[in-house]
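Reopening this one. Same input as before:
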Amino acid sequence: MVAQFLVWEVISQSMCDTAFSAATVTKMTLDPEFGNREKSRKYYTTVGAEEVESNEQSYDKALQRGLWDWTINELAIGDENKTF
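Same output, byte for byte:
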């Protein structure tokens, strides 16, 4: 009985988080507040759309280059798309 309760709590919490996250993403997509220039190029939490600082890894040029190289090598179609 306790196990069933715990499983239900995890499932119901997960469904609530998913629904809330979906509502947040919808708000950020459709709400004119997020379309103005002051909100542009900022980072937000998925839950609640609170503005947050960018992770310091996002400024790491080596990580950026590594991600770019991986993307081109794994996803580009044709050699002409692999040069940039």
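So the earlier flakiness isn't reproducible anymore. For the record, The radius of gyration is 20 Å.
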